[in-house]
Amino acid sequence: MDGDNLKKERIKKEIAEEHGEIPYEETTVRELITLMKDNTELITDLAYAAVAFDDKELAEEVRHLESEMDKMMYQIRLKCMLGARTLEHAEQLSGILQVASATEKISDAAEDMVRLLDMDIELRPILPHILKEADEKIYPIAIYPGSSMARRTIGELRIESHTGVRLIAIRRKNRWIFGPDSEDRLFENDIMIVRGVKEGYKELREAAHGDIPWKVVVG
């Protein structure tokens, strides 16, 4: 076994003591950082929604994403340690580790938020009232039959571009679609979980309920 492989095995052993046995993945640091950044946005929105709606299913997804963030942080630490061949490389990689560490701290904070749902049931209803002070709020919006948004993809509608409202998740009967992408399609009776200001929410709700056609929103 050459020096690099010995080093890799030693680092894997040390970090695995903290996170458990995690297989080494042939993924680039750039890809991992991008994924962590995207997951940070999603996990924050889901934690906010879980507390706002007192929803333990959303809270469980937050915990799952936080665990995935820990695994990605492990991979980044491993790759940075293996890539630090000179002092110059080490200085460059230290900046990457700082960015990754910041995203991990945000995901840890999101998990701390959903732990509020484990508190006394009599105290939990106060949490949505606390969140009402925020400029951007979490709202549920149903897609009514006859809405011009129904059966169209998110990429086609470009909801956030036209309303400023971010689509966090979709509730479809008894299942969730978290962090929907441009290829996901909306259907009648879907429940959208969105984050945004009141003005954008009202316009989106009117279109979702079929009160106005989507082309009015687009302008």
Walk me through what this model shows.
By secondary structure, this protein is of the alpha+beta class. The chain is 59% helix and 11% strand. It contains nine helices and four strands; from the N terminus they run αααααβααβββαα. The protein has a four-stranded antiparallel sheet with strand order 1-4-2-3, with helices on both faces. The radius of gyration is 21 Å and the shape is globular.
Structural domain tally: 2
Question: What's the name of the CATH homologous superfamily of the largest domain?
Answer: Phosphate transport system protein phou homolog 2, domain 2
Strand arrangement across the biggest beta sheet? 1-4-2-3
Number of β-strand runs? 4
Q: What is the CA-based Rg, rounded?
A: 21 Å
Helix content bin: 55-70%
Give the CATH level 1 class of the largest domain.
Mainly Alpha
Largest sheet: 4 strands, antiparallel
Query: Could you tell me the strand content as a percent range?
Result: 5-15%
Number of helices: 9
| Coarse shape | globular
The SS-based structural class is alpha+beta
How far apart lie the N and C ends? 64 Å
- CATH fold description of the largest domain: Methane Monooxygenase Hydroxylase, Chain G, domain 1
Average residue pLDDT: 83
- Note the run of SSEs as H and E: HHHHHEHHEEEHH
Parts with pLDDT < 50 across at least 5 consecutive residues: none
Please identify, by name, the CATH architecture of the largest domain.
Answer: Up-down Bundle
